[in-house]
Write a structure and sequence with these properties.
Helices cover 45% and strands 19% of the residues.
Amino acid sequence: MRSSVVFLLAAVLFFPRVASAQTASLVEQARKEGEVVLYSTMPVTVFDVFQKAAKEKYPFLNIQHVYLSSSRQVSRVMLEHRAGKVQADVLGNSLEGTFYYKEQKVLGKYDSPEAKAMIDGAVDPERLWFGMTTDFLITAFNTRMLARGKAPKNYDEYLNPEFKGQMAMNIGVPYALTGMASLRGEDQGRGYVKRLEQQNLRPVEGFTHITNLLAAGEYPLAIFMQVSKIEDMKKKGGPVEWLPAAPTFATLSAVAMVQNASHPAAARLLIDFFLSPEGQQALVKAGKIPLRKGVKTPAKNIDELLASGNIYVIKPQGEYSDSMKLYRQLLGMKS
Protein backbone atom coordinates (compact mmCIF):
# COMPACT_ATOMS: atom_id res chain seq x y z
CA MET A 1 0.00 0.00 0.00
CA ARG A 2 2.81 2.38 0.99
CA SER A 3 4.66 1.72 -2.28
CA SER A 4 1.50 2.49 -4.29
CA VAL A 5 1.07 5.81 -2.52
CA VAL A 6 4.70 6.69 -3.15
CA PHE A 7 4.29 5.80 -6.84
CA LEU A 8 1.17 7.96 -7.19
CA LEU A 9 2.86 10.91 -5.51
CA ALA A 10 5.85 10.52 -7.78
CA ALA A 11 3.57 10.42 -10.83
CA VAL A 12 1.72 13.56 -9.72
CA LEU A 13 5.00 15.41 -9.32
CA PHE A 14 6.67 14.01 -12.42
CA PHE A 15 4.02 14.31 -15.15
CA PRO A 16 3.54 18.11 -14.89
CA ARG A 17 7.31 18.46 -15.31
CA VAL A 18 7.20 16.24 -18.41
CA ALA A 19 4.32 18.26 -19.88
CA SER A 20 6.17 21.50 -19.11
CA ALA A 21 9.32 20.18 -20.77
CA GLN A 22 7.36 19.08 -23.83
CA THR A 23 5.76 22.54 -24.12
CA ALA A 24 9.12 24.25 -23.77
CA SER A 25 10.58 21.99 -26.47
CA LEU A 26 7.67 22.77 -28.81
CA VAL A 27 8.05 26.51 -28.23
CA GLU A 28 11.77 26.31 -28.97
CA GLN A 29 11.17 24.37 -32.21
CA ALA A 30 8.47 26.86 -33.25
CA ARG A 31 10.84 29.72 -32.48
CA LYS A 32 13.35 28.25 -34.93
CA GLU A 33 10.66 27.89 -37.62
CA GLY A 34 9.59 31.47 -37.01
CA GLU A 35 6.31 31.44 -38.90
CA VAL A 36 3.13 29.50 -39.61
CA VAL A 37 0.72 29.77 -42.55
CA LEU A 38 -2.98 29.82 -41.66
CA TYR A 39 -5.81 29.53 -44.18
CA SER A 40 -9.06 30.42 -42.43
CA THR A 41 -12.59 31.71 -42.85
CA MET A 42 -11.93 34.09 -39.96
CA PRO A 43 -12.67 37.71 -40.99
CA VAL A 44 -9.72 40.09 -40.78
CA THR A 45 -11.35 42.02 -37.91
CA VAL A 46 -11.55 38.82 -35.83
CA PHE A 47 -8.06 37.66 -36.81
CA ASP A 48 -6.52 41.00 -35.78
CA VAL A 49 -7.84 40.58 -32.23
CA PHE A 50 -6.66 36.97 -32.11
CA GLN A 51 -3.24 37.76 -33.56
CA LYS A 52 -2.63 40.50 -31.00
CA ALA A 53 -3.18 37.99 -28.18
CA ALA A 54 -0.96 35.40 -29.90
CA LYS A 55 1.84 37.96 -30.30
CA GLU A 56 1.67 38.83 -26.61
CA LYS A 57 2.37 35.22 -25.70
CA TYR A 58 4.62 34.24 -28.62
CA PRO A 59 6.19 37.45 -30.02
CA PHE A 60 8.50 35.42 -32.26
CA LEU A 61 5.64 33.70 -34.11
CA ASN A 62 4.71 35.29 -37.43
CA ILE A 63 1.23 34.12 -38.46
CA GLN A 64 0.72 34.44 -42.21
CA HIS A 65 -3.07 34.61 -42.45
CA VAL A 66 -4.91 33.98 -45.71
CA TYR A 67 -8.63 34.72 -45.49
CA LEU A 68 -10.83 32.60 -47.78
CA SER A 69 -14.53 31.77 -47.70
CA SER A 70 -15.27 28.15 -46.87
CA SER A 71 -15.90 27.00 -50.45
CA ARG A 72 -12.97 28.98 -51.90
CA GLN A 73 -10.66 27.61 -49.25
CA VAL A 74 -11.69 24.03 -49.99
CA SER A 75 -11.12 24.57 -53.71
CA ARG A 76 -7.65 26.04 -53.12
CA VAL A 77 -6.58 23.42 -50.59
CA MET A 78 -7.69 20.51 -52.76
CA LEU A 79 -5.93 21.99 -55.79
CA GLU A 80 -2.71 22.27 -53.77
CA HIS A 81 -3.22 18.83 -52.23
CA ARG A 82 -3.58 17.17 -55.62
CA ALA A 83 -0.49 19.04 -56.82
CA GLY A 84 1.44 17.40 -53.99
CA LYS A 85 1.77 20.12 -51.33
CA VAL A 86 -0.72 22.21 -49.36
CA GLN A 87 0.90 25.61 -48.79
CA ALA A 88 -0.88 26.18 -45.47
CA ASP A 89 0.23 24.65 -42.17
CA VAL A 90 -3.08 25.11 -40.38
CA LEU A 91 -6.64 25.20 -41.73
CA GLY A 92 -9.61 26.91 -40.09
CA ASN A 93 -13.02 26.16 -41.58
CA SER A 94 -16.55 25.04 -40.79
CA LEU A 95 -16.96 21.48 -39.56
CA GLU A 96 -18.40 20.54 -42.95
CA GLY A 97 -15.27 21.69 -44.76
CA THR A 98 -13.03 20.10 -42.15
CA PHE A 99 -14.82 16.74 -42.45
CA TYR A 100 -14.16 16.87 -46.18
CA TYR A 101 -10.45 17.49 -45.56
CA LYS A 102 -10.41 14.50 -43.23
CA GLU A 103 -12.04 12.27 -45.84
CA GLN A 104 -9.52 13.41 -48.45
CA LYS A 105 -6.52 12.65 -46.17
CA VAL A 106 -5.42 16.28 -46.06
CA LEU A 107 -5.07 16.50 -42.27
CA GLY A 108 -2.31 15.43 -39.92
CA LYS A 109 -2.84 14.06 -36.42
CA TYR A 110 -1.94 16.12 -33.37
CA ASP A 111 -2.90 15.23 -29.80
CA SER A 112 -3.04 18.74 -28.36
CA PRO A 113 -2.71 18.87 -24.56
CA GLU A 114 -5.40 21.59 -24.58
CA ALA A 115 -8.03 19.25 -26.06
CA LYS A 116 -9.05 17.85 -22.68
CA ALA A 117 -10.41 21.24 -21.64
CA MET A 118 -12.89 21.53 -24.51
CA ILE A 119 -16.61 20.74 -24.23
CA ASP A 120 -17.91 17.31 -25.25
CA GLY A 121 -18.11 16.80 -29.01
CA ALA A 122 -15.70 19.62 -29.80
CA VAL A 123 -12.69 17.41 -30.55
CA ASP A 124 -12.21 14.72 -33.17
CA PRO A 125 -11.64 11.33 -31.45
CA GLU A 126 -8.75 10.76 -33.86
CA ARG A 127 -7.30 14.20 -33.06
CA LEU A 128 -7.41 15.34 -36.68
CA TRP A 129 -9.45 18.48 -35.91
CA PHE A 130 -10.42 20.65 -32.96
CA GLY A 131 -13.44 22.91 -32.53
CA MET A 132 -12.37 26.48 -31.72
CA THR A 133 -15.66 28.44 -31.71
CA THR A 134 -19.34 27.59 -31.88
CA ASP A 135 -22.77 29.04 -32.50
CA PHE A 136 -26.01 27.63 -31.15
CA LEU A 137 -29.19 27.18 -33.15
CA ILE A 138 -32.05 28.38 -30.99
CA THR A 139 -35.65 29.57 -31.15
CA ALA A 140 -35.75 33.36 -31.49
CA PHE A 141 -38.87 35.45 -31.01
CA ASN A 142 -40.05 39.06 -31.15
CA THR A 143 -40.98 39.97 -27.57
CA ARG A 144 -43.63 42.46 -28.74
CA MET A 145 -45.40 39.80 -30.77
CA LEU A 146 -44.99 36.65 -28.70
CA ALA A 147 -44.63 35.98 -24.98
CA ARG A 148 -41.82 33.68 -23.84
CA GLY A 149 -44.33 31.19 -22.44
CA LYS A 150 -46.03 30.89 -25.82
CA ALA A 151 -42.85 30.27 -27.87
CA PRO A 152 -42.03 26.73 -29.02
CA LYS A 153 -39.60 25.00 -26.68
CA ASN A 154 -38.36 22.17 -28.88
CA TYR A 155 -38.07 21.05 -32.51
CA ASP A 156 -41.30 19.05 -32.48
CA GLU A 157 -43.27 22.07 -31.26
CA TYR A 158 -42.25 23.86 -34.46
CA LEU A 159 -44.70 21.49 -36.15
CA ASN A 160 -47.70 22.57 -34.05
CA PRO A 161 -50.59 24.07 -36.10
CA GLU A 162 -50.57 27.30 -34.05
CA PHE A 163 -47.18 28.23 -35.53
CA LYS A 164 -48.15 27.72 -39.15
CA GLY A 165 -47.14 30.76 -41.20
CA GLN A 166 -45.48 32.35 -38.13
CA MET A 167 -41.90 31.13 -38.49
CA ALA A 168 -38.95 32.32 -40.56
CA MET A 169 -35.92 30.15 -41.32
CA ASN A 170 -32.59 30.74 -43.03
CA ILE A 171 -32.74 28.74 -46.26
CA GLY A 172 -29.10 29.45 -47.06
CA VAL A 173 -27.81 26.68 -44.76
CA PRO A 174 -29.16 23.12 -44.38
CA TYR A 175 -28.94 22.95 -40.58
CA ALA A 176 -32.57 21.88 -40.05
CA LEU A 177 -31.86 18.82 -42.20
CA THR A 178 -28.30 18.02 -41.12
CA GLY A 179 -29.11 18.63 -37.46
CA MET A 180 -32.18 16.39 -37.37
CA ALA A 181 -30.50 13.72 -39.53
CA SER A 182 -27.47 13.74 -37.24
CA LEU A 183 -29.65 13.56 -34.11
CA ARG A 184 -32.42 11.17 -35.20
CA GLY A 185 -31.14 9.44 -38.34
CA GLU A 186 -31.32 10.23 -42.04
CA ASP A 187 -34.88 9.02 -42.69
CA GLN A 188 -36.34 10.86 -39.70
CA GLY A 189 -34.36 13.96 -40.63
CA ARG A 190 -35.87 14.02 -44.12
CA GLY A 191 -39.33 13.33 -42.75
CA TYR A 192 -39.00 16.17 -40.27
CA VAL A 193 -38.06 18.73 -42.94
CA LYS A 194 -40.98 17.58 -45.12
CA ARG A 195 -43.37 18.19 -42.22
CA LEU A 196 -41.67 21.52 -41.47
CA GLU A 197 -42.24 22.60 -45.09
CA GLN A 198 -45.98 22.22 -44.53
CA GLN A 199 -45.83 24.94 -41.88
CA ASN A 200 -45.70 27.68 -44.55
CA LEU A 201 -42.25 28.85 -43.48
CA ARG A 202 -41.05 32.35 -44.25
CA PRO A 203 -37.86 31.67 -46.27
CA VAL A 204 -35.03 34.16 -45.72
CA GLU A 205 -31.40 34.17 -46.90
CA GLY A 206 -28.83 34.91 -44.21
CA PHE A 207 -28.83 35.03 -40.41
CA THR A 208 -28.22 38.78 -40.22
CA HIS A 209 -31.12 39.52 -42.56
CA ILE A 210 -33.48 37.23 -40.71
CA THR A 211 -32.53 38.92 -37.41
CA ASN A 212 -33.24 42.39 -38.74
CA LEU A 213 -36.64 41.33 -40.06
CA LEU A 214 -37.51 39.59 -36.78
CA ALA A 215 -36.69 42.75 -34.81
CA ALA A 216 -38.73 44.82 -37.27
CA GLY A 217 -41.80 42.64 -36.62
CA GLU A 218 -42.02 40.93 -40.01
CA TYR A 219 -42.71 37.64 -38.19
CA PRO A 220 -42.87 36.56 -34.53
CA LEU A 221 -40.52 33.57 -34.73
CA ALA A 222 -37.21 32.56 -36.30
CA ILE A 223 -36.18 28.92 -35.94
CA PHE A 224 -32.78 27.19 -36.15
CA MET A 225 -31.44 30.68 -35.57
CA GLN A 226 -27.87 31.64 -34.58
CA VAL A 227 -27.83 32.81 -30.99
CA SER A 228 -24.90 35.18 -31.62
CA LYS A 229 -27.01 37.28 -34.01
CA ILE A 230 -29.88 37.50 -31.54
CA GLU A 231 -27.55 38.52 -28.71
CA ASP A 232 -26.06 41.24 -30.93
CA MET A 233 -29.55 42.56 -31.70
CA LYS A 234 -30.45 42.54 -27.99
CA LYS A 235 -27.39 44.71 -27.27
CA LYS A 236 -28.71 47.21 -29.83
CA GLY A 237 -32.06 47.34 -28.02
CA GLY A 238 -33.99 45.16 -30.46
CA PRO A 239 -37.17 43.49 -29.12
CA VAL A 240 -35.85 39.95 -29.47
CA GLU A 241 -35.17 37.04 -27.12
CA TRP A 242 -34.37 33.34 -27.45
CA LEU A 243 -34.96 29.90 -26.01
CA PRO A 244 -32.71 26.83 -26.20
CA ALA A 245 -34.04 23.51 -27.46
CA ALA A 246 -33.40 20.10 -25.92
CA PRO A 247 -30.75 19.37 -26.98
CA THR A 248 -29.52 22.60 -28.54
CA PHE A 249 -27.79 22.20 -31.89
CA ALA A 250 -24.27 23.57 -32.12
CA THR A 251 -22.31 24.35 -35.27
CA LEU A 252 -18.54 24.48 -35.03
CA SER A 253 -15.66 26.28 -36.62
CA ALA A 254 -12.69 23.94 -36.49
CA VAL A 255 -8.93 24.16 -36.74
CA ALA A 256 -6.63 21.41 -38.00
CA MET A 257 -3.02 20.79 -38.95
CA VAL A 258 -2.09 19.89 -42.51
CA GLN A 259 -0.36 16.58 -43.10
CA ASN A 260 3.37 17.10 -43.69
CA ALA A 261 3.14 20.78 -42.75
CA SER A 262 6.14 22.95 -43.66
CA HIS A 263 6.19 24.41 -40.13
CA PRO A 264 5.01 21.49 -37.95
CA ALA A 265 6.06 22.84 -34.55
CA ALA A 266 4.61 26.29 -35.22
CA ALA A 267 1.41 24.64 -36.49
CA ARG A 268 1.05 22.65 -33.26
CA LEU A 269 1.78 25.72 -31.17
CA LEU A 270 -0.84 27.74 -33.05
CA ILE A 271 -3.46 25.03 -32.53
CA ASP A 272 -2.59 24.91 -28.82
CA PHE A 273 -3.07 28.67 -28.64
CA PHE A 274 -6.45 28.52 -30.40
CA LEU A 275 -7.62 26.14 -27.67
CA SER A 276 -5.83 27.80 -24.74
CA PRO A 277 -7.55 30.10 -22.24
CA GLU A 278 -5.79 33.13 -23.79
CA GLY A 279 -6.73 32.16 -27.34
CA GLN A 280 -10.33 31.41 -26.45
CA GLN A 281 -10.65 34.67 -24.51
CA ALA A 282 -9.30 36.58 -27.53
CA LEU A 283 -11.95 34.96 -29.72
CA VAL A 284 -14.62 35.94 -27.19
CA LYS A 285 -13.31 39.52 -27.32
CA ALA A 286 -13.76 39.37 -31.10
CA GLY A 287 -17.41 38.35 -30.66
CA LYS A 288 -17.14 34.57 -30.90
CA ILE A 289 -18.54 31.86 -28.61
CA PRO A 290 -15.76 29.73 -27.07
CA LEU A 291 -15.60 25.96 -26.72
CA ARG A 292 -13.21 25.73 -23.79
CA LYS A 293 -14.82 24.89 -20.46
CA GLY A 294 -14.74 27.79 -18.02
CA VAL A 295 -14.14 30.57 -20.57
CA LYS A 296 -16.92 33.09 -20.09
CA THR A 297 -18.81 35.11 -22.69
CA PRO A 298 -20.52 38.51 -22.13
CA ALA A 299 -23.91 36.74 -22.12
CA LYS A 300 -24.85 34.90 -18.92
CA ASN A 301 -27.53 32.79 -20.65
CA ILE A 302 -24.98 31.56 -23.23
CA ASP A 303 -22.58 30.65 -20.41
CA GLU A 304 -25.37 28.71 -18.71
CA LEU A 305 -26.09 26.84 -21.94
CA LEU A 306 -22.39 26.05 -22.40
CA ALA A 307 -22.21 24.68 -18.87
CA SER A 308 -25.47 22.73 -19.10
CA GLY A 309 -24.20 19.89 -21.26
CA ASN A 310 -27.47 20.19 -23.19
CA ILE A 311 -25.60 20.70 -26.47
CA TYR A 312 -25.52 18.53 -29.58
CA VAL A 313 -22.78 19.18 -32.12
CA ILE A 314 -24.13 18.70 -35.65
CA LYS A 315 -22.10 16.09 -37.49
CA PRO A 316 -22.08 16.66 -41.27
CA GLN A 317 -23.91 14.06 -43.34
CA GLY A 318 -22.00 13.49 -46.61
CA GLU A 319 -21.14 16.30 -49.01
CA TYR A 320 -22.34 19.73 -47.93
CA SER A 321 -23.48 20.56 -51.48
CA ASP A 322 -25.55 17.37 -51.58
CA SER A 323 -27.13 18.20 -48.22
CA MET A 324 -27.97 21.69 -49.45
CA LYS A 325 -29.54 20.36 -52.64
CA LEU A 326 -31.67 17.82 -50.75
CA TYR A 327 -32.65 20.43 -48.18
CA ARG A 328 -34.01 22.79 -50.81
CA GLN A 329 -35.83 19.94 -52.55
CA LEU A 330 -37.52 18.91 -49.29
CA LEU A 331 -38.59 22.53 -48.78
CA GLY A 332 -40.13 22.53 -52.26
CA MET A 333 -37.59 24.98 -53.66
CA LYS A 334 -35.53 24.99 -56.82
CA SER A 335 -32.02 23.68 -56.15
